[in-house]
């Protein structure tokens, strides 16, 4: 195993997209930023230098961070932010993981432009459990606003209503020629007949789940969230913010140009966004060919397309990569996730109320001191440990009473005993409107053992759980008007954030944290905090 060192300079840079220009926050001047390469077992040291006017922190999304919560990154959860002019070295070892993940800023809305890929190769000499592709390519999907994204969310918070949707979607930073700017070029992938290509697809968008497909080429899915899956073929994948998907394409055509598209998936009858990012796959020697084979993305609300893909995902569950699904459960939790409405006398556009979001009707309040520090140094008054394991009112999807809408506020965590097993049912409330919630858990992978529409029914639904080869991941879409059940082992001491990965919902409060402790052995407690850990 090696030590890999990276320098991430967070700097402002003028960027041109959609025929206009604005300053953005970047890492090393690029958005998407640098790809972080490592092998399983390597130790990674990233020196982050904050040279912008904002406070900054970086999260290594999906990296387990076993006992190294100090390097996880969410601001005010595992660290105080890195202030302007300061540096912080993230230091973690990649244990038992290989595949594609992403890094991104974890404060304010900076991850709009501060994000990039993490590529973890298997240990030296260890092959992939599928035929080795000839070429590998990172494909980062994103969103672009013409205006400053901090203004977008600040205006929305003042008014109490939803922020503007983005002006374009992007593939590797480029929208391609779109209606608002026909001259904007798109990402090009050049391929050669007879070769195979592994695309490491990452959804780094702020607020939208996306469909992705390529004209004339099937995608063989081999991995999601840095966990191998049983390979299967599909025309279209669906990918939520924070999720990653590795697919292999075979370049079987002799020539031509083929369209690659990324477009929103939103389980809503109202088309709030129908913009498509366009890139091209072109065969060697045919660059600039006058005709491109086109493809049309699925309609925005095609739940059928999304479910067909999601239901095909299974853990590889081989001898080398077994799916160790917890069978005996210590903590059985039921969390409702969704939007709500609270009074806001100053919210004009919201008519005296504001949209909020919560888990079990609790809107999480960001502390002003890191929760992990508060826990480690036993600082009182930063958080309470009374996060409820069930909603305050019996939840009924069909009988949506107004009492389900209001939330209370607090910085509450749920305490899990080290190495205990957890079953967590995430129930979408969908009371205000259909809502998708891609929920991300820091510090763990979990198994997605069940999913359904309407109300979760413990007696009936538990019988149908897949406890053999459920997909293992770190971010999961809670279906609109439905539920998912996940299981994991709390084998990582620390404070671990869980939140909706649609940034607007996180901002509104759809977040909480698990505190995993009671450890007494060396593997059950945190490594000591690094000397350069930022102060609040
Ligand atoms: Cu990718 Cu807490 O985030």
From TrEMBL:
<dbReference type="InterPro" id="IPR011707">
    <property type="entry name" value="Cu-oxidase-like_N"/>
</dbReference>
<dbReference type="GO" id="GO:0052716">
    <property type="term" value="F:hydroquinone:oxygen oxidoreductase activity"/>
</dbReference>
<keyword id="KW-0186">Copper</keyword>
<feature type="domain" description="Plastocyanin-like">
    <location>
        <begin position="137"/>
        <end position="285"/>
    </location>
</feature>
<dbReference type="InterPro" id="IPR045087">
    <property type="entry name" value="Cu-oxidase_fam"/>
</dbReference>
<keyword id="KW-0325">Glycoprotein</keyword>
<comment type="function">
    <text>Lignin degradation and detoxification of lignin-derived products.</text>
</comment>
<protein>
    <recommendedName>
        <fullName>Laccase</fullName>
        <ecNumber>1.10.3.2</ecNumber>
    </recommendedName>
</protein>
<dbReference type="InterPro" id="IPR033138">
    <property type="entry name" value="Cu_oxidase_CS"/>
</dbReference>
<dbReference type="InterPro" id="IPR034285">
    <property type="entry name" value="CuRO_2_LCC"/>
</dbReference>
<feature type="domain" description="Plastocyanin-like">
    <location>
        <begin position="387"/>
        <end position="519"/>
    </location>
</feature>
<dbReference type="Pfam" id="PF07731">
    <property type="entry name" value="Cu-oxidase_2"/>
</dbReference>
<dbReference type="Pfam" id="PF07732">
    <property type="entry name" value="Cu-oxidase_3"/>
</dbReference>
<dbReference type="InterPro" id="IPR017761">
    <property type="entry name" value="Laccase"/>
</dbReference>
<feature type="domain" description="Plastocyanin-like">
    <location>
        <begin position="10"/>
        <end position="124"/>
    </location>
</feature>
<dbReference type="InterPro" id="IPR034288">
    <property type="entry name" value="CuRO_1_LCC"/>
</dbReference>
<dbReference type="InterPro" id="IPR001117">
    <property type="entry name" value="Cu-oxidase_2nd"/>
</dbReference>
<dbReference type="InterPro" id="IPR002355">
    <property type="entry name" value="Cu_oxidase_Cu_BS"/>
</dbReference>
<dbReference type="GO" id="GO:0048046">
    <property type="term" value="C:apoplast"/>
</dbReference>
<comment type="similarity">
    <text>Belongs to the multicopper oxidase family.</text>
</comment>
<keyword id="KW-0560">Oxidoreductase</keyword>
<keyword id="KW-0964">Secreted</keyword>
<keyword id="KW-0439">Lignin degradation</keyword>
<dbReference type="InterPro" id="IPR034289">
    <property type="entry name" value="CuRO_3_LCC"/>
</dbReference>
<dbReference type="InterPro" id="IPR008972">
    <property type="entry name" value="Cupredoxin"/>
</dbReference>
<dbReference type="GO" id="GO:0005507">
    <property type="term" value="F:copper ion binding"/>
</dbReference>
<dbReference type="Pfam" id="PF00394">
    <property type="entry name" value="Cu-oxidase"/>
</dbReference>
<dbReference type="InterPro" id="IPR011706">
    <property type="entry name" value="Cu-oxidase_C"/>
</dbReference>
<keyword id="KW-0479">Metal-binding</keyword>
<keyword id="KW-0677">Repeat</keyword>
<keyword id="KW-0052">Apoplast</keyword>
<dbReference type="GO" id="GO:0046274">
    <property type="term" value="P:lignin catabolic process"/>
</dbReference>
């Amino acid at each position: 195993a090696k030590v890999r060192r990276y320098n991430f300079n967070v700097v402002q840079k003028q960027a041109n997209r959609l025929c206009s220009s604005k300053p953005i926050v970047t890492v090393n001047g690029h958005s998407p930023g640098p790809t972080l390469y490592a092998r399983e077992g390597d130790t990674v040291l990233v020196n982050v230098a904050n040279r912008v006017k904002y406070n900054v922190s970086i999260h290594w999304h999906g990296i387990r961070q076993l006992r190294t919560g100090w390097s996880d990154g969410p601001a005010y959860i595992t660290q105080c932010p890195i202030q302007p002019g300061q540096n912080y070295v993230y230091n973690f070892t990649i244990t038992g993981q290989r595949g594609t993940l992403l890094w991104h800023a974890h404060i304010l809305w900076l991850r709009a432009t501060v994000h990039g890929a993490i590529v973890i190769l298997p240990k030296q000499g260890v092959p992939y459990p599928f035929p080795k592709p000839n070429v590998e390519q990172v494909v980062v999907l994103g969103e672009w606003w013409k205006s400053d994204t901090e203004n977008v969310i600040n205006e929305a918070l003042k008014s109490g209503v939803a922020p503007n949707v983005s002006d374009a979607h992007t593939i590797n930073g480029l929208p391609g020629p779109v209606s608002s700017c026909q001259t904007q070029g798109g990402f090009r992938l050049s391929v050669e007949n007879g070769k195979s290509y592994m695309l490491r697809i990452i959804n780094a968008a702020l607020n939208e789940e996306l469909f992705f497909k390529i004209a004339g080429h099937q995608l063989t899915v081999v991995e999601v969230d840095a966990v191998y899956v049983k390979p299967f073929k599909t025309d279209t994948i669906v990918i939520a913010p924070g999720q990653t998907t590795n697919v292999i394409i075979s370049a079987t055509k002799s020539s031509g140009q083929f369209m690659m598209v990324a477009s929103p998936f939103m389980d809503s009858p109202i088309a709030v966004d129908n913009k498509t990012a366009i890139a091209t796959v072109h065969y060697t020697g045919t660059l600039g060919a006058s005709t491109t084979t086109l493809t049309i993305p699925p309609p925005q609300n095609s739940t059928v397309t999304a479910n067909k893909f999601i239901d095909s995902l299974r853990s590889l569950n081989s001898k080398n990569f077994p799916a160790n699904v917890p069978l005996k459960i210590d903590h059985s939790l039921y969390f409702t996730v969704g939007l709500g409405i609270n009074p806001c006398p100053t919210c004009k556009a919201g008519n005296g109320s504001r949209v909020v979001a919560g888990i079990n009707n609790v809107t999480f309040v960001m502390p002003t001191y890191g929760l992990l520090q508060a826990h480690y140094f036993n600082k009182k008054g930063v958080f309470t440990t009374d996060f409820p394991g069930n909603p305050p009112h019996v939840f009924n999807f069909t009988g949506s009473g107004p009492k389900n809408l209001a939330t209370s506020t607090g910085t509450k965590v749920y305490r899990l005993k080290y190495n205990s097993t957890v079953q967590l049912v995430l129930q979408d409330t969908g009371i205000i409107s259909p809502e998708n919630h891609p929920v991300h858990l820091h510090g763990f992978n979990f198994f997605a053992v069940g999913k359904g529409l309407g109300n979760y029914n413990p007696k009936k639904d538990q019988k149908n759980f897949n406890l053999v080869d459920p997909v293992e991941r770190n971010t999961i879409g809670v279906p609109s008007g439905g539920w998912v059940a996940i299981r994991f082992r709390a084998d990582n001491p620390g404070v671990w954030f869980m939140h909706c990965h649609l940034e607007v919902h996180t901002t509104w409060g759809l977040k909480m944290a698990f505190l995993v402790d009671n450890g007494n052995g060396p593997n059950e407690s945190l490594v000591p905090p690094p000397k350069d850990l930022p102060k609040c």
